Amino acid sequence: MDFRIEDITRDEIDRRLSVVEPLTDSVRDLVDAVIRSQVSDAELDAARAKIDEVVAALRTQQRPGSFGTPYTREFIGMPWGNAAVGARNALAPPLRVTRSPGVAECDMVLGAAYEGPGGCVHGGVAALMLDQLVGEAASTDGLPSFTGTLTVRYLRPTRLGALTARAEVTGREGRKTFVHATMSDDDGVTVEADAIMVSPKGFELPDGDALPHPANSRQDL
Amino acid sequence: MDFRIEDITRDEIDRRLSVVEPLTDSVRDLVDAVIRSQVSDAELDAARAKIDEVVAALRTQQRPGSFGTPYTREFIGMPWGNAAVGARNALAPPLRVTRSPGVAECDMVLGAAYEGPGGCVHGGVAALMLDQLVGEAASTDGLPSFTGTLTVRYLRPTRLGALTARAEVTGREGRKTFVHATMSDDDGVTVEADAIMVSPKGFELPDGDALPHPANSRQDL
């Protein structure tokens, strides 16, 4: 995996975000508009020509490959290309995750671009958002980890619209961290997930030093 | 879930796709360019202004809500808003799935927009693509079904780039269909998934009439 140090100040990060966030929001808007538009074929063709012009202008200077996951020396991450949280990635809603020890949560609005069954969130999109959240919950103490196994249970269809999601660490054992997560609409939980996160070698807890299960988080939703 | 009949001919479907597919490809290109561009802030702002103009033009006539899942009377589906396979959805790579009885497979190229860890496919994106494939495999005989449980195991990081995926029905029991799926790069399987798909009531097989497990599909990858 590719990491890189990009040693910029918090102010410079904010300045860059003030430019790219509105741009990415406009692209999200465009993704939605292309799905739902009912204008004529000629107008769709005209839209394509204009988009191609914009792409050509943006590509006059571009980084090779992907955005990667740069960090400042103060270890502020800038995962701006990330498919779930990326500030430069129009595929991401983006999730704006709030973290406290062992917990990650967020509100999100999933529109037409996240559809699977008619009018409903694609089951795989729910898995994508919950995979991101379990990773964020597992790393709130700075421990790096990757998803080893993710089990997602679909309790009922999730309508497109405003949703909340929450992930909470439920235990630790050696290099494994166990995380439970849920996605909910106004009527309660629609999807739940359990993840076994795995930390790289050298990050395991000593034998028998598993963290206790925190209070069951699902009633908080 | 929302279904609707849109009774158009195969020729009319092809005609519409010939307009929307190149448009959506251009938006995919734009999503990638916004992630990777290194042009000046002024140029990024100019891009945003042009995109907003395109969005306004497309939105002069648009359907409410989402695209939905229209079908012709011959039951040809047009899930063009779908997050994994949608011809109008720039979030979808899109997967172009080949189906045979009990099997769904596809090649795909996942670029910068599908990133999680630096240079690698987001684990949740792998889950999204495999969720789509298990649904396609389970429905090759026309039986409607939805994902009940999806278990995804990450064997090693999946580098961004050219990948293949395959899903195969391994058994049936009442309203449940069991499907095994894999995602692979040139060196072999990187992610595997098992799904329990559930069909609506009235679609169950009689007791004891479970289908036999087909030959293990993983060696084919």
Automatic annotation (TrEMBL), chains A, B:
Catalytic activity: tetradecanoyl-CoA + H2O = tetradecanoate + CoA + H(+); (9Z)-octadecenoyl-CoA + H2O = (9Z)-octadecenoate + CoA + H(+); dodecanoyl-CoA + H2O = dodecanoate + CoA + H(+); octanoyl-CoA + H2O = octanoate + CoA + H(+)
Main location: membrane
Domain Thioesterase: 118-191
GO CC terms in record: cytoplasm; membrane
Annotated SUPFAM superfamilies: Thioesterase/thiol ester dehydrase-isomerase (SSF54637)
Alphabetized Gene3D superfamilies for the sequence: Hotdog Thioesterase (3.10.129.10)
Gene Ontology molecular function terms on file: hydrolase activity
EC supergroup of this enzyme: hydrolase
Protein name (record): Acyl-coenzyme A thioesterase THEM4
Native source species: Gordonia iterans
UniProt keyword list: Apoptosis, Cell membrane, Cell projection, Cytoplasm, Fatty acid metabolism, Hydrolase, Lipid metabolism, Membrane, Transit peptide
A Pfam family annotated for this UniProt entry: 4HBT
UniProt cross-references to InterPro entries, sorted A to Z: HotDog_dom_sf (IPR029069), THEM4/THEM5_acyl-CoA_thioest (IPR052365), Thioestr_dom (IPR006683)
